[in-house]
Write a structure and sequence with these properties.
Oligomer: heterotrimer
Number of strands of chain B: 0
Structural class of chain A: alpha/beta
Strand content of chain B: under 5%
Order of helices and strands of chain A: HEEEEHEHEEEHEHHHHHH
Largest interface: A-C, 41 and 43 residues
Structural class of chain B: mainly alpha
Low-confidence stretches of chain A: none
Distance between the termini of chain A: 49 Å
Helix content of chain B: 25-40%
Shape of chain A: globular
Chains: A alpha/beta (316), B mainly alpha (49), C alpha+beta (345)
Mean pLDDT of chain A: 96
Distance between the termini of chain B: 27 Å
Strand content of chain A: 5-15%
Order of helices and strands of chain B: H
Number of helices of chain B: 1
Helix content of chain A: 25-40%
Largest sheet of chain B: none
Mean pLDDT of chain B: 92
Number of strands of chain A: 9
Shape of chain B: elongated
């Protein structure tokens, strides 16, 4: 995906020259390997900061909320779906945006790579098309990128942006026949006791730093329910029930809105697989309401509509 | 996530449907009672140091 | 002071023996990272680690602790009387703590223990804890302890220090607490000159391996308001998602919030870690929030660590150079870069 970099810089430069945008939001190369940083640039002189590779895991839509200027932004499949959701939910308007679409081949799972090198410290990473090489003090390993994709990217069926003003490259082939919900089906098969134990176990390391919530573009409430103190919905201590309340409610607030961009899991400092919460909701949305979030501006959001053929008796 | 089927109910009741409201409330209470007290997701005294 | 040498097997055995004197905490591999856990039969200590993901500060200063409890039951004579909760101050030893994390306790101490205020819980936990450090033979690329007054074999804040000499551990007692710890430790033998020399060489080599140097020399002389109004804060803060990862992983972040939780008639007053990254941290009862914006909160974190602390305590910066926030920040906010910006302004 490195070949996109030049195109992104050129496009951003052109947008500034033609005075089509006030700012441009993209990624810059981070100070650590496998870590790029969202960046906002405000003139053509800064375009060389812009970068793109398989370590752009934070969702840029997060940085759009309620901006009032004209923004150029890079967006791959999932980020573009969040932009659609943002527009539908009136967090930004379409005519403020110039979307530079990126056909995406998935992001690298930094934890999987760390595991592969037995947690030795990685000092550099280089991408070569479908492979990448990591280097440390006394080792060098090359891996196939497809074996080390983030879990959400492995099951992604919308790699190409669904909304854009121009593309940096022709669309990539979409993954078909992926079993998106294999893990969810396994959990669905458990009895309630097992389910409870499963979810209790996956969050037992949670430190309530709220990185998952804050990395999520859907979480833009001026005051989150966990920060509300009058009334107080959830305790602030590390009590496991309060922690569970946070995770369950956070997930429910994403129902019908989550694009499975994976930012929540990527940023967790203790590696909680919290997509296990949101994926079930995505599956229900898809199976019960034929709904996938953020595919088009022409549809009202799932929780915004009434369908006469709803699968539940009570609502008809 | 570990809440037994039958403990959580949804219904759509108009403010004009008082009888339906009573019926649903009775039905929900009956089913939940049959399940007995919930075992999970109950806030007790905070488990802290 | 006692200096002993143990084979690694002997050392593990000695630790098991020490369990009758101390509650021993050791680094344990827990999934993808290491964490300090109480030593027991099921947990194998793993001293072959860079550092733990979470700092060991929670052993002295838990994320949540009940400080008082009370009953609202009017039928009891002690209704509405707040009583201090019982705590466990039995002797504890943290074995394998990295020198940066021990140094961090020294950095934090003036906040909890100063002539004006003494935090009884922090102080008693700290005083009942023996810190047995493990020098860093191979510091990480994000370590910058030598720039902030520490070092891979720094003895600051430690009661004893372990040197990993390959097949053996050299251990040096540094304080009375450390001496007592070694007195209770079975096995091992008196360290000979060769072992001591090997330890010294190791420490000298390790210090040279730290490539990261950041400058903090000019921070003290800066004018607070000039740093506060510096032009770079918007850029620094842009990517920040305002989560609490940096502050919760940091061994020197000490801020807390106090919450009352009432369940029926049982009341608890609980102290919880808080983070300057959260809007709620500064929200006033009136509804006004003096740090309502992200950039204000990000600035606060760096100003506190690198300027306010420097000015207030004359004890260096509020950072021990462990690099946790650098490695684990979801948005790659890098304190080394921000420190350079501030020092250079």
């Amino acid at each position: 995906m490195l070949e996109y970099v030049e195109k992104i810089r050129k496009t951003a430069g052109k947008l500034f020259e033609e005075d089509k945008v006030d700012v441009f939001i993209g990624y810059k190369k981070g100070s650590l390997p496998m870590m790029n940083q969202p960046v906002l640039i405000s003139n053509a002189d800064q375009v060389d900061l812009l970068h793109w590779d398989s370590n752009c895991g934070l969702n840029l839509c997060n940085y759009l909320t309620k901006r009032t200027d004209r923004i150029g932004i890079v967006a791959n499949g999932c980020n573009s779906r969040n932009i659609v959701t943002h527009i539908t939910e009136n967090q930004i308007s379409r005519d403020q945006l110039y979307i530079v679409g990126i056909p995406c081949k998935g992001m690298i799972d930094h934890r999987a790579v760390q595991r592969a090198v037995k947690q030795k410290e990685i000092l550099a990473i280089e991408e070569q098309g479908n492979t990448f090489t990591v280097k440390g003090k006394d080792f060098e390993d090359t891996f196939n990128k497809n074996d080390y994709l983030q879990r959400n990217c492995l099951v992604c069926t919308h790699r190409n942006p669904v909304i854009f003003d121009e593309m940096v490259a022709p669309p990539v082939e979409e993954q078909i026949e992926v079993d998106t919900y294999k893990d969810v089906k396994q959990i669905e098969g458990m009895d309630p006791e097992k389910k409870w134990n499963f979810f209790t176990r996956i969050i037992d390391k949670c430190i309530r730093c709220y990185a998952c919530r804050n990395a999520c573009p859907l979480c833009y409430c001026p005051t989150c329910f966990v920060d509300e103190s009058n009334p107080q919905w959830v305790g602030k201590s590390s009590d496991p029930i309060d922690t569970m309340t946070f995770h369950i409610l956070r997930a429910y607030h994403c129902a019908g809105r989550c694009t499975d961009c994976g930012a929540c899991e990527r940023v967790c400092p203790v590696g909680i697989p919290m997509r296990q919460f949101t994926k079930k909701l995505n599956k229900d949305a898809q199976e019960l309401f034929s709904w996938e979030a953020g595919l088009t501006l022409d549809q009202r959001p799932l929780l915004d509509v009434f369908q006469p053929d709803d699968y539940n008796d009570f609502i008809r | 996530m570990g809440i037994e089927p039958g403990r959580l109910h949804f219904s759509w009741i108009s403010s004009a449907e008082a009888t339906k409201y009573v019926d649903v409330a009775r039905e929900v209470a009956k089913e939940v009672k049959a399940l007995g007290p919930a075992k999970h997701f109950i806030k007790k005294r905070a488990e802290v140091a | 002071m006692t200096e002993k040498i143990y084979t690694k097997e002997e050392w593990i055995k000695a630790l098991s023996g020490l369990k009758s004197f101390y509650n021993i905490f050791v680094p344990v591999r827990d999934g993808d990272f290491h964490t300090f856990k109480a030593l027991d039969e099921k947990k194998i200590p793993d001293f072959n680690f860079q550092n733990t993901r979470l700092s060991p500060k929670s052993l002295v200063y838990p994320q949540s602790e009940r400080i008082f409890a009370y009953t609202l039951d009017e039928d009891t004579p002690d209704a509405n009387i707040i009583k201090e909760s019982e705590k466990d101050y039995s002797p504890k030893a943290v074995v394998g703590i990295r020198p940066c994390d021990a140094h961090a306790f020294q950095i934090v101490r003036p906040n909890f223990d100063n002539p004006e205020y003494q935090d009884p819980w922090w102080i008693q936990r700290y005083e009942s804890t023996t810190l047995v450090g493990l020098g860093c033979n191979a510091p990480g690329s994000t370590c910058f302890c030598t720039s902030v007054g520490g070092g891979p074999f720094s003895e600051k804040g430690l009661d004893a220090l372990l040197y990993d000499l390959g097949d053996t551990f050299l251990i040096k007692a540094l304080t009375e607490k450390g001496e007592a710890f070694l007195e209770n430790a079975q096995g091992g033998k008196e360290a000979d000159d060769a072992a001591l020399k090997a330890g010294e060489d190791l420490a000298a080599k390790a210090a040279n391996k730290i490539e990261q140097k950041i400058s903090i020399d000019k921070l003290k002389d800066k004018v607070q308001t000039e740093l506060f109004d510096a032009p770079f804060w918007d850029d620094v803060a842009f990517a920040c998602i305002n989560c609490g990862t940096c502050t919760y992983l940091c061994p020197t972040c000490w801020c807390f919030d106090i919450q009352d939780e009432v369940l029926e008639k049982q009341g608890d007053r609980i102290r919880n870690w808080d983070s300057c990254m959260f809007p709620l941290f500064t929200l006033h009862g009136s509804g006004h929030n003096p740090r309502a914006k992200k950039v204000q909160r990000v600035r606060q974190r760096f100003m506190h660590k690198l300027k306010y602390y420097v000015d207030k305590y004359n004890n260096g910066v509020q950072c021990s150079g462990c690099g946790r926030c650098v490695r684990n920040c979801p948005a790659n906010i890098d304190i080394r870069e921000v420190c350079e910006l501030m020092n250079r302004l």
